[in-house]
């Protein structure tokens, strides 16, 4: 086949993507270039590439790719892409939205159990051979509020509903969601026993959970963040937890990762720090490869791609 588009796979583990391309019968329709992230593409690779798939694009590279028509980000969040000064206005950008649908809901439900049940305390007591009777807090009858009910939020809502929880939430687009009562943010904060943040990183969500909004939560409520770190104003959360204006917080994402050792999140009693374990999955490359190959077939056939980034919305 002549005029096969050049596809640059610039990633650590390219084997799952190559296997998926071959399995889909697309290998003979493209020219594949494989490159680990530790290496830089050659001038020839940059000049020829019409498609690129990578985690993060360094500044100054896109301007050297005159034929580039489509970029597939390997992560759901694209805030780093959207701040690139050389991001072409006409470049089709897709993200890996939805590829955490298996791992993240399970890990979020695990977090709910962690903060509601005394397993962690029992494990600590075991180290001292202490028998301490405790009464687990039920999830049944409690209200879970999800700020940002997207694909992941809807999956979490289904699982939470089977546990007997009431689920409410917010959504940028006001479409109805089965099993979730969509309400204004203030009402969600005021009614929830657990507030789950699944917000993208945009100008509108920067410092969204500040002192004012934290004050709208119940004193008995927990805040869980599995979305993006910048949606929380760090110093306001530390103050709210220290002053027991909310019960506590479990965090999986941060403004800076790894979280610096001097950050007060580490030492504030009532704040649980997770090392960004919400999304990773042992076979995540297979999930992203499935999306990429579907999009690659669409691209070759001139069809609309999935998970196209809305630059105005920021995700």
Describe the protein.
This protein is α/β, with parallel strands linked by helices and 315 residues long. It folds into 2 domains: 6-99 and 282-301, Rossmann fold (3-Layer(aba) Sandwich), CATH 3.40.50; 103-273, 3-Layer(aba) Sandwich (Rossmann fold). It has helices at residues 15-23, 43-48, 79-82, 103-116, 119-127, 151-162, 185-191, 211-214, 234-242, 284-301; strands at 6-10, 31-35, 49-54, 70-73, 92-94, 143-147, 166-170, 181-182, 194-197, 222-225, 248-251, 271-273. The strands form 2 sheets. The chain has a 7-stranded parallel β-sheet, with helices on both faces. Strands 2-1-3-4-5 form a 5-stranded parallel β-sheet. Helix 1 (15-23) packs across helix 10 (284-301) and helix 4 crosses helix 6 (151-162). The longest helix is centred in the C-terminal third of the chain and has 18 residues, at 284-301. The radius of gyration is 22 Å and the shape is elongated.
Rounded to the nearest angstrom, the radius of gyration is 22 Å
CATH superfamily of the largest domain: NAD(P)-binding Rossmann-like Domain
Mean pLDDT across the residues is 96
Order of helix and strand elements from N to C terminus = EHEHEEHEHHEHEEHEHEHEEH
The CATH topology label of the largest domain is: Rossmann fold
Number of separate strands? 12
Per DSSP, what share of the residues sits in E-state strands of 2 or more residues? 15-25%
């Amino acid at each position: 086949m002549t005029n096969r588009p050049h596809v640059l796979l610039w990633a650590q583990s390219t084997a799952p993507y190559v296997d998926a391309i071959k399995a889909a019968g697309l290998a003979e329709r493209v020219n594949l270039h494989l490159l680990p992230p530790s290496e830089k593409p050659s001038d020839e690779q940059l000049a020829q590439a019409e498609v690129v798939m990578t985690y993060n694009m360094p500044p100054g590279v896109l301007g050297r790719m005159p034929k580039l028509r489509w970029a597939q980000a390997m992560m759901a969040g694209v805030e780093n892409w959207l701040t690139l000064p050389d991001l072409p206005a006409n470049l089709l950008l897709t993200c890996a939205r939805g590829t955490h649908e298996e791992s993240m809901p399970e890990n979020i439900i695990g977090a709910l159990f962690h903060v509601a049940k005394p397993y962690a305390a029992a494990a600590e007591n075991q180290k001292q051979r202490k028998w301490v009777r405790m009464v687990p807090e039920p999830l049944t009858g409690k209200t879970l509020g999800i700020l940002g009910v997207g694909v992941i939020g809807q999956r979490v809502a289904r699982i939470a509903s089977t546990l007997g929880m009431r689920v409410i939430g917010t959504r940028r687009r006001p479409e109805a969601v089965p099993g979730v009562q969509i309400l204004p943010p203030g009402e969600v904060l005021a009614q929830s026993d657990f507030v789950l943040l699944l917000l993208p990183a945009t100008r509108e969500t920067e410092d969204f959970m500040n002192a004012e909004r934290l004050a709208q939560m119940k004193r008995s409520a927990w805040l869980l963040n599995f979305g993006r770190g910048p949606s929380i104003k760090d110093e306001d959360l530390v103050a709210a937890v220290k002053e027991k204006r909310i019960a506590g917080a479990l965090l999986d994402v941060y403004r800076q990762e790894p979280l610096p050792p001097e950050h007060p999140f580490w030492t504030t009693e009532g704040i649980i720090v997770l090392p960004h374990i919400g999304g990773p999955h042992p076979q995540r490359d297979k999930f992203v490869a499935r999306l990429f190959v579907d999009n690659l077939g669409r691209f070759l056939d001139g069809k609309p791609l999935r998970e196209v980034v809305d630059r105005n919305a920021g995700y």
